[in-house]
Amino acid sequence: MEEEAEYFSKDFEWEELRAEVENDPSFAHHLLPFEPTSSISSLQPQSDSDAWRRFHIRHSAGKFFKERRYLLKEFPELASCKENSTVLEVGCGNGSTILPLLRGNENIIVYACDCSTEIIERAKETVDASNIVSIKQRFHPFYCDLSASKFPTWLACNQCQDMYLQTQRNSSDITVNSRMDSSDLYLMRESGCCKGGVDFITLIFTLSALPLQMMPVTIKECFSVLKPGGLLLFRDYGLYDMTMLRFEIEKRVGFREYMRSDGTRSYFFCLDTVRDLFIGAGFAELELEYCCIKSVNRRNGKVMRRVWVHGKFQKPV
């Protein structure tokens, strides 16, 4: 029963929460216009990647990240897709999304990237620990830091994907494998073979970790490696989520954008912002809503109101 509770999306109405927050003086600093300081404006995207690397290394052991088993119900397309469907998990972390996908559908092939080679190794260990050969064979991790580079060209081409997989079987170097942007692959793209790409992209609590100004570039990159008709499945922090309301005024680094003491950042999305970002990149909107969940802290009995944004976007055929 506890696991099933995760599948509900309307434990409360977001508009009621909004009215409550916007009329509470203690939350007034979240609503104020933001004026950047010189120290904030000088932050480089690379510093965000470094902060997330340290974060993942620090939390790579134990059960800080729980498996996201609810995703197959939130996104049933992943459970019913055709044989050899390809999924790109952007910002895979330690594999909390990957393993449920591989277990839940034997037809799925998962490519997964992150900005940390260390955490990719942790994701590999997580998958290897399943001791299921078919799962290991369908998992293909690679290094990619979108703050510094684009996706490798082979993601957008079926033939290049085959070349990558063959090279991966002959090498354990994740960093080398991820950078197969050689002249040969370039010529293959120029010759017109790149009609492929991936069938699905999952962007799960990843976009909010990027600076707002980088989000359009990242979404366009996702658009470029998705097959025509392919789906991007989105889930991230929503406006007035409990974690947003806990941030103090000095943690603001932008409007609805905050930085934790460890240097990692988080943006909290309203539906209009998400819609503008994805439509601006060329996607068509299929679903977009707030997911509003109540959970109870077992130690103190306090009710916590979580808000996430759930979205499905399609690359036009």
TrEMBL record:
Pfam families hit by this protein: Methyltransf_23
InterPro entries in the record: METTL2/6/8-like, SAM-dependent_MTases_sf
Record keywords: Methyltransferase, Transferase
Keyword Methyltransferase: yes
SUPFAM superfamilies, A to Z: S-adenosyl-L-methionine-dependent methyltransferases (SSF53335)
Molecular function terms, GO-annotated: RNA methyltransferase activity; S-adenosylmethionine-dependent methyltransferase activity
Record-listed E.C. numbers: 2.1.1.-
Domain of life: Eukaryota
GO biological process terms, semicolon-separated: methylation
EC category: transferase
Function: S-adenosyl-L-methionine-dependent methyltransferase.
Similarity remark: Belongs to the methyltransferase superfamily. METL family.
Protein name, per record: tRNA N(3)-methylcytidine methyltransferase
Annotated organism of origin: Rhamnella rubrinervis
Lineage: Eukaryota, Viridiplantae, Streptophyta, Embryophyta, Tracheophyta
